[in-house]
Amino acid sequence: MKTRLILLSTLLFPFTGLFGQAEGDTMKIISLDAIQIQGQRSTVERLPPVHNGFLWAGKKNEVINLLYSDASIADKTPRQLFAKVPGVFVYDMDGSGNQTNISTRGLDPHRGWEFNIRKNGVIVNSDVYGYPASHYSMPMEAVEKIELVRGTGALQYGSQFGGMLNYVVKQPDTSKLIGLETINSIGSFGLLSTYNALGGKVGKLQYYAYYSKRVSDGYRENSRSDYDGQGIVLKFLPSSRLILTAELGRSNYIYQIPGPLTDSMFQENPRQATRSRNYFNPEIYVPSLSAEWKIGERSSLYWTASAVLGERRSVQFDKPANVVDAIDPLSLSYATRQVDIDQFNSYTSELRFLQGYSIGKISATLAAGAQYFNNDLHRNQIGKGTSARTRPLFPRPAGAGIFTSKPKTSPFLPKTSSKSRPGSPSPRGPGWRWENQGCRASLPTCRMRRDSQFHRPSFSAFRIERKLPDRRADQRLCGLFAGIPPGDLQGYRAWLDLRGSGQKPGRCQRL
Predict the structure, then answer these.
(1) What is the rounded distance in angstroms from the CA atom of residue 280 to the CA atom of residue 96?
(2) What is the C-alpha to C-alpha distance for residues 195 and 185, in angstroms, rounded to an integer?
(3) Considering only CA atoms, which of 216, 205, 135, 122 is closest in space to residue 167?
(4) Which stretch of DSSP H or E encloses residue 3?
(5) What residue ranges define each of the domains in the chain, with the CATH number in brackets?
(6) pLDDT tens digits, one per residue of 185-213
(7) pTM of the shown model
């Protein structure tokens, strides 16, 4: 009996102490406010000192990461894409998202022709040293990041004043045999956009292919846009030191040009159109082959061969805004339109070599290479088109023809060095570049006359004489520009003459 009572009291003792402690607890309860931790991924980064055969140390550059960007990718609005890059000027030529018109340092943004524009390091300028506008239009859904290098970094990649703009295409998911990505968008003003991509890895072969389609009615009347683009990237890795890549890109769009507006027209209705029969249509193919060979631990060799092939076509009733495009009561038809067609056949080959070395505690990198361009531009302009209202089939114009061929070689030798300690300033180094360019041109006499009404005329005469480097021909350009406000009938005439060596130079004549 005594044993049982002791056991019972032992079992009850902890609970009795627990209740007693709860009644006499003097601890204060403190309530903490909720803590919110906010973070933001940076969408603008910097290039490493050495990257893909280029030296970027000490050069002003930005890398725009589109994967984390809040810009409207489907609209392809350059003002949003480059909004966080200071000093970039954007010109919205048509507002359709087909053309990127940007510049830096106060240069002309027209179709980015002050930039050396590339896709995965491959040049896409239509004619680098003749008509350097970039008519190739990539869907931004296919781009992972945009690399922008300004100004004097051009020593390595070309002589463009603006710098270099490189679109880096997305990489496939190498952990899967087949990966699928689809992005579909609906927006204002009749925007319908679809992007579909397929990628993966099969053995030593990596692949990525995409198809993009975008149509829009546009902000203004008669400003419809119809775009489609395709691309495929095949990358073969036979070993850990060698990468072989084959790419093919295509872009094609037809943009209906709504025509110019005067200030009073714009104030009345900025969305109105003065033209319904003007169209612009560039179709560009960019094939390329490249190889990257890591020769040693600090030695690499890069080689690229590419081409830009295609046409830029336009048909327009090219008159001032106050000239109405209407049916002639006598002929009961519209006036004929002007047809202009440029044919691009540009070929490029680049070879680059990188060698890293050390002198004491100073590490350095030497880059050497050579570039070869052969741009063959055929221009057929001021041709007579149809008087129809519908979209044309762009017949070959019978107007003036300009044919140029420009082979060019340019070896370069930039170098950079830096101390090995962390936190050292951005390294810079000397560089050297030499260019040799030849030119052949066939310019049949081009006589252009326009009669326009204007008063208080302002004239600007010009005369340019140029002796081609190979002394095969002398080129002379002369003419007279005139303003076109309303008033008396006036006109002007311009000549483009090319005479071979041993002949008299071309003459400038007045109307």
Answers:
(1) 12
(2) 9
(3) 122
(4) helix 2-23
(5) 44-166 (2.170.130.10), 444-511 (no CATH)
(6) 998 888 999 999 999 999 999 999 999 99
(7) 0.74
